[in-house]
Design a protein that fits this description.
The chain is an alpha/beta fold. It has 16 helices and 12 strands. The strands form 3 sheets. It has a 5-stranded mixed β-sheet, sandwiched between helices. Helix 3 links the parallel strand 5 and strand 6. The radius of gyration is 28 Å and the shape is elongated. About 30% of the residues are buried.
Length: about 400
């Protein structure tokens, strides 16, 4: 299944011109067919919503009544879209365009492309979509903690029988606003490049919501010398991607295929922190304290507690027109250095010390652990803001 809009994003459809129905590009397509005018004289019983119909308009010069009546019947059947091969100077009758508007059927024109190639392009794209939906489901099964390591290995090999014994993983998040169409476009590009590769690859891209997980595998000997980010960049390049398009979080340590769940989990944490820190890529090795911060804010109970404490500080700032939170953020970002915090906040060092002490009192923090709690609280607060 695919939408008309997604069809237009395919390589061979770039030059298509829309005649009418721009607001109905979300129509779903389940089948792509070529209209044969001779058979259209008999019946249109099989045509319905879900059909994307390709037809030649050249016959209109020889038999305009047959061609235009056939198109009207297609429109009345509420097909999902019609693409007509016609000369650039040709135009459709106004009554046919109006009927398409009334029946919510988008119509397009093209000239250079072969209809058989277009059909293949659509069908291959739908096949790929079906495949990566299955792979996404299998990845979800891998991430299910109920499955044993043996089951994880088995499911992984169902995704790619060519996986070797050691793997590294990366999670890729688009730097643009992620949409379903955008993810589909990425996988259409993958389909195009995969078709040019002569052999099966020891890596696989798997859809994960609006993100992409790359699983790359190695033999035991290869894993000893692997440089994770170099390998990831090479694979992206081979598949026609520019690394600059993504935030990339990865687990740099090759692990056994049976431990794929842990590797994917680490790469997903790494990419979240990568986005927060506004880095292009980040290894889980260098996530540092944020791995614990993320665990806190993804826990519903702990997250509520963080919000409650932040609300106390926000209310105080509002009532007293003060800047406790701003001061605490500067204090944490400067690793507790009062001098640097003072300069950044344009306040005397004693004022900074007073504000920190006031925050500790408001939050009722234990004196011997107050600094650690403030660090954790503020880092949680900042990461929560990034997520929202």
């Amino acid at each position: 299944m695919i939408t008309v809009n997604e069809i237009l994003s395919l390589t061979l459809f770039k030059k298509f011109q829309i005649v009418t129905g721009k607001e109905y590009l979300t129509n779903t397509v389940t089948t792509a067919v070529i209209l044969e005018y001779e058979s259209s004289r008999i019946q249109f019983a099989g045509y319905c919503y879900g059909y994307f119909v390709l037809a030649s308009y050249f016959f209109a010069s020889m038999n305009p009544e047959l061609v235009n009546n056939s198109l009207k019947k297609l429109i009345q059947k509420h097909v999902s879209g019609i693409a007509l091969k016609m000369l650039p100077e040709e135009h459709l009758p106004p009554d046919l365009i109006q009927l398409a508007k009334d029946e919510h059927v988008p119509i397009f024109t093209f000239y250079d492309e072969f209809m058989e190639d277009l059909i293949i392009n659509i069908n291959e794209s739908m096949k790929t979509r079906a495949q990566y939906i299955v792979h996404e489901e299998k990845l979800n099964m891998i991430m299910d903690e109920k499955n044993s390591e043996e089951e994880v290995r088995r499911i992984a090999l169902e995704i790619n029988p060519g996986f070797k014994n050691k793997v590294i993983t990366a999670t890729l998040v688009s730097k643009e606003t992620a949409t379903n169409l955008q993810v589909h476009t990425y996988f259409d590009k993958l389909m195009y490049h995969s078709s040019k590769m002569e052999t099966e690859t020891p890596w696989t891209f798997v859809k994960n919501g609006y993100n992409i997980v790359l699983i790359s595998s190695f033999s035991e000997d290869e894993a000893k010398n692997v440089k994770a980010m170099i390998d990831i960049k090479n694979i992206l390049q081979k598949c026609g991607f520019s690394e600059e398009l993504f935030y990339i979080g990865y687990d740099a340590e090759p692990v056994d295929l049976s431990k794929l769940r842990e590797s994917v989990y680490k790469s997903k944490i790494a990419v979240k922190i990568c986005m927060f820190l506004e880095k292009d890529y980040l290894s889980y090795t260098y996530v540092g304290v944020y791995k614990y911060v993320l665990t806190v804010i993804e826990n519903e109970i702990m997250c509520a507690e963080v919000k409650k404490k932040i609300a106390i500080l926000e209310n105080y700032d509002k009532q007293h027109e003060s800047t406790l939170i701003k001061t605490l953020i500067s204090y944490v970002n400067n690793n507790g250095d009062f001098g640097k915090t003072s300069l950044e906040c344009f306040q005397h060092t004693n004022t900074i010390r007073y504000r920190i002490k006031k925050a500790e009192e408001l939050l009722d923090l234990e004196e011997n652990t107050s600094q650690e709690e403030i660090y954790l609280l503020i880092r949680c607060y900042l990461l929560m803001k990034e997520k929202n």
